[in-house]
């Protein structure tokens, strides 16, 4: 087996390696694709100087100017953009780290190991640095995300990564992490996806897993259980997992693997009763326990798994279907795949199915780089191949509201943004899109890049709004034709759910009870799409921005769809006036959207009970210092949880919400704006505070660009409503 010679697993060092020379790193961007390069020769260094944004992202000092002291909100917004515009990359977008989840690097590095693909040295040492920096200070373990408590999932998997990358079992960090893992009971109680990765690495036995039957792919789409009806991320993860599981693919145990087996468990590996591990999940990890019906079905499927593979013709057939779906996903996304989890899994499948010399294998290796991000703590794997479109369209809209777009000095930057939006809009439906259960994508905008190419409802709407805001500026070319704007609207009009709301990538396809079969244990609400106030608002306001410039196109439908969307927003407001947010933290984020929805049809504090209650909820959460701050616990628990410190990002969300709703009192808003201004540095920058984003209720993810886009936006809107008056000395 290749892995026996896996280079870094043999290093086995008790010392931490020396890390890279940060002055040699460069970010390359091409149509939004972000890849970091470590330059080796002095010649290269000369030809490719380090940019300001390289330095900023790497956390190394760079020259930045002290700006005139801002006294009014627009002066502060202007300083903010003075700083931020220097970070715009040459293809027109804003890059940034998109880390947070701590279960992404393991899938990738375990696949490097199994496939015997050497990890480039600069990447190897910088991942080590990242994981050492991100270990929890008190116990040396890792959680499901960077701010989470240590769990078996985070600790066991990242432990394996560091061992693969060359740290010895008696390296101090490994001793500490192992102690934590053992204190949590060892790796037997790792959640399902962890069980999968450890089994794929021959460090767990397949009998310890609940079945992942690829046969589901043979079901007709009429049946709810057909994966084509699940949330797209979930089906795309279980697709390749099913293939590996069904064939029980794993490497021959090497000496290294045998050692890991000793390190990961509190009892001898050979003595573990694997069949009783299927439902053994550590308490520190468990977010969503299995339902009884899930346990029953898993039990039944375990019997099915006893049929010998050779005699199971249905399985053979299902594996063929699976391979075809994987092929389509790889080709349609240029081997990026929808996200980092299926990226690693598909690569592993390709290794077993087509072999290491195949085109597919090579393409996968090439595009791994798109997910890797070099930050001040080392190298991480991003939650997608970036958040390019999303961040870029927000700053366009923020600049529009803060009247920065009109400033002649910023014209080149605005033009660059528009060029990027143009480039990023998806120009096609993928071939045979129905066969691979994809939604239409011609005219849509994705979250990251055109190559990734997945329609997202709110990204499409935000892309549309950004484009409209820029194209109406004097002197700006109309890079995106009317027809292409209509294409975007056409996509949006296909995406409304029966409840009037909008989901993320597709319409809701499956019934809600599918959630009873959620096998992930660590994530909530992942089996189907759901309507979200955030996505619904984005679509609603996107449609109304379009209506303002093309009042005649599909007018009646747009109005009907908007009316129903609004009803959804009203219906989902809670008793206390709040809305629950699903994609950033949390109630302040959802309030910004929902109150925006209401405002878009003229419902404000004064004339609408919904808007008034929404405002009152926010005001009741304002902190002493005038800011707002929520912790990620809000997302986990569904109850507003105050952060000990106000956060500029939450504060900006709340300001935007209250201003949209025409909250009649100025003082709370003035104080909030002052807080944002006081947190601004002399060079216009805002510093990173707590993590901003979330998915699946339980995993947090970083949106470092929000501290620029939403602050500038809030300052701009405040000036529009209350005038650009002096706020501080
Ligand atoms: C994202 C990021 C963007 C996000 C918004 C556009 C903000 C949202 O409004 C709609 C949903 C979407 C597109 C979204 C969905 C889930 C993603 C892709 C992520 C949170 C980024 C990472 C996450 C993905 C599922 C991570 C991989 C983990 C698995 C559980 C498969």
Automatic annotation (TrEMBL):
Boundaries of every Squalene cyclase N-terminal domain copy: 85-331
GO terms assigned for molecular function: lanosterol synthase activity
Domain of life: Eukaryota
CDD domains documented for this protein: SQCY_1
UniProt keyword DNA-binding present: no
Enzyme Commission no: 5.4.99.-
Biological process per Gene Ontology, one example term: ergosterol biosynthetic process
PROSITE patterns associated with the record: TERPENE_SYNTHASES
Domain spans labelled Squalene cyclase C-terminal: 387-719
Entry GO CC: lipid droplet
UniProt keywords, alphabetically: Isomerase, Lipid biosynthesis, Lipid metabolism, Repeat, Steroid biosynthesis
Pfam entry (one): SQHop_cyclase_N
Family: Belongs to the terpene cyclase/mutase family.
NCBIfam families associated with the record: squalene_cyclas
Name of this protein: Terpene cyclase/mutase family member
Organism annotation: Mortierella isabellina (Filamentous fungus)
Classification of source organism: Eukaryota, Fungi, Fungi incertae sedis, Mucoromycota, Mucoromycotina
């Amino acid at each position: 087996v290749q892995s026996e010679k896996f280079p870094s697993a043999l290093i086995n060092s008790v010392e931490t390696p020396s890390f890279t020379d940060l002055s040699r790193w460069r970010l390359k961007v091409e149509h939004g694709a972000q890849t970091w390069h470590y330059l080796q020769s002095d010649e290269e260094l000369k030809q490719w100087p380090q940019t300001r944004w390289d330095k900023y992202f790497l956390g190394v000092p760079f020259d930045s100017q002290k700006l005139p002291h801002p006294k009014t909100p627009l002066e502060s917004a202007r300083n903010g953009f003075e700083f931020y515009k220097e970070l715009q990359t040459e293809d027109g977008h804003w890059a940034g780290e998109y880390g947070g989840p701590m279960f992404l690097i393991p899938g990738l590095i375990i696949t490097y190991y199994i496939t015997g693909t050497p990890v480039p040295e600069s990447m190897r040492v910088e991942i080590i640095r990242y994981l050492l920096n991100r270990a929890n200070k008190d116990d040396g373990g890792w959680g499901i995300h960077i701010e989470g408590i240590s769990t078996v999932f985070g600790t066991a998997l990242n432990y394996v990564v560091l061992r693969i990358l060359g740290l010895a079992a008696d390296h101090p960090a490994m001793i500490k992490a192992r102690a934590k893992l053992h204190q949590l009971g060892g790796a037997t109680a790792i959640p399902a996806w962890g069980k999968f990765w450890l089994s794929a690495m021959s460090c767990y036995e397949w009998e310890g897993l609940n079945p992942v039957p690829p046969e589901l792919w043979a079901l007709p789409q009429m049946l709810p259980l057909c994966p084509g009806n699940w949330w797209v991320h979930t089906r795309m993860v279980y697709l390749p997992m099913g293939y590996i599981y069904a064939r029980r693919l794993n490497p021959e145990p090497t000496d290294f693997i045998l050692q890991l087996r000793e390190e990961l468990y509190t009892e001898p590996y050979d003595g573990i009763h694997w069949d009783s591990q299927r439902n053994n999940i550590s308490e520190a990890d468990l977010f969503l326990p299995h339902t009884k019906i899930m346990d029953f079905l898993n039990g039944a499927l375990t019997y099915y798994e006893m049929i010998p593979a050779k005699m199971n013709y249905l399985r053979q057939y299902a594996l063929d279907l699976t391979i075809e779906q994987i092929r389509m996903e790889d080709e349609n996304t240029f081997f990026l795949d929808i996200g980092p989890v299926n990226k690693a899994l598909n690569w592993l499948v390709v290794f077993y199915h087509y072999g290491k010399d195949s085109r597919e294998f090579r393409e996968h290796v090439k595009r791994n780089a798109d997910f890797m991000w070099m930050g001040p703590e080392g190298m991480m794997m991003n939650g997608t191949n970036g958040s390019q479109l999303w961040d870029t369209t927000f700053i366009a809209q923020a600049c529009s509201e803060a009247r920065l777009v009109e400033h002649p000095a910023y014209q080149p930057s605005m033009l660059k943004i528009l060029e990027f939006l143009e480039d990023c809009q998806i120009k096609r439906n993928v071939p045979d899109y129905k066969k691979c259960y994809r939604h239409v994508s011609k005219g849509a905008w994705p979250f990251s890049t055109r190559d990734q190419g997945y329609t997202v409802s709110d990204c499409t709407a935000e892309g549309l709004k950004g484009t409209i805001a820029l194209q109406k500026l004097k002197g700006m070319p109309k890079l995106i034709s009317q027809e292409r704007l209509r294409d975007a609207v056409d996509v949006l009009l296909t995406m409304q759910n029966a409840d009037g709301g909008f989901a993320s990538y597709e319409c809701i396809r499956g019934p809600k009870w599918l959630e009873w079969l959620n096998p992930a244990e660590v994530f909530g609400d992942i089996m189907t799409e759901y309507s979200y106030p955030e996505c619904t608002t984005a679509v609603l306001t996107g449609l109304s921005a379009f209506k303002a410039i093309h009042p005649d196109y599909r007018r009646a439908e747009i109005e009907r769809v908007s009316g129903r969307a609004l009803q959804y927003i009203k219906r989902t407001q809670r008793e206390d006036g709040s809305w629950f947010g699903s994609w950033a933290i949390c109630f302040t984020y959802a309030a910004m959207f929902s109150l925006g929805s209401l405002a878009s049809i003229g419902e404000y504090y004064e004339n609408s009970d919904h808007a008034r209650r929404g405002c009152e909820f926010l005001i009741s959460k304002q902190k002493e210092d005038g800011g707002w701050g929520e912790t990620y616990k809000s997302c986990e628990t569904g109850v507003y949880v105050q952060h000990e410190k106000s956060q500029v990002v939450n504060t900006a969300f709340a300001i935007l919400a209250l201003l949209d709703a025409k909250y009649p009192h100025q003082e709370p808003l003035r104080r909030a704006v002052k807080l944002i201004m006081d947190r601004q540095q002399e060079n216009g920058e805002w510093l990173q505070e707590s993590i901003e984003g979330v998915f699946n209720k339980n995993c947090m993810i970083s949106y470092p660009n929000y501290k620029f886009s939403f602050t500038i936006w809030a300052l701009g809107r405040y000036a529009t409503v209350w005038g650009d008056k002096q706020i501080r000395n």
